[in-house]
Structure prediction request, 214 residues.
Amino acid sequence: MDSEEIYKEMADSIVELDQEKALSLANRALDENMDLLAVIEKGFGEGIRRVGDLWDEGEFFLPELMSGAQIMQKSVDIITPKLQSSGSERQSLGKILLATIEGDIHSIGKTIVATMLRANGFHVIDIGTDVKAEKIVEEAIKEDVDIIGVSTLLTTTMINQKKVIEILEKKKVRDKFKVIFGGAPVTQGWVDECNADGYAENAVESVKLAKNLL
Ligand code: B12
Prediction:
């Protein structure tokens, strides 16, 4: 089986909600020294997006969506230590605070972004999901980070991303931080409207963006 076929098997394992197959493929990726980023993006990531589409089309219900997400998370957890170790010995390129905004519990994409940033030499502080804008700003000031990254997957919570900028402006500390947004509904237009500093569509682009900003 070539890599493309294995990526397809990985995606299928998520759609089929077959945990045993997914975990065995994640271990195989480690054993065979596969490109782990491609494994996440083209393999398991493609699978969870298809699960989302099926949910959208009414083919899947919430239990299936949750089960797919859990299998995806467990598969990524197997790969993460190896991905991260490649960045651990380098000097830190900068400090980044990551959070999913208030009202939103989606964590998979943010966790992948955190992993990739760490693997590329950034010091990442991930303060979790459903985090209030006030708390994000408070932590960013306390930790004296260079970049604040705010994730959201829901259109209804995008507005809370904007709050982060508003609070920074109100506290007169906006120029101390670069603020980046991410998550499927985020666009350049939204970034411009909020006066943020950038957004990235995936983990690889997030690393490029962070490097460019610092
Ligand atoms: C998995 C999933 C879940 C899981 C989340 C598990 C978890 N721990 O994360 C569960 C089942 C819990 C869930 C719940 C819900 N979900 Co949901 N979910 C998804 C799904 C299928 C996949 C998301 C995902 O993990 N994608 C894979 C990752 C790798 O991609 P990603 O998240 O986009 O992240 C990448 C980029 O966006 C970017 N990125 C992400 N964050 C950041 C941050 C920064 C700073 C940067 C630079 C980049 C960046 O890089 C990442 C890596 O490449 C999507 C469908 C989809 N197509 O996205 C729906 C989806 C996001 N969910 C949706 C909904 C509606 C819900 C619920 C409201 C359902 C409900 N009725 O309860 C709840 C939300 C509850 C809440 N308050 O948050 C909708 C949102 C619709 C909308 N437009 O608002 C979607 C789009 C499904 C759909 N098609 O309708 N969900």
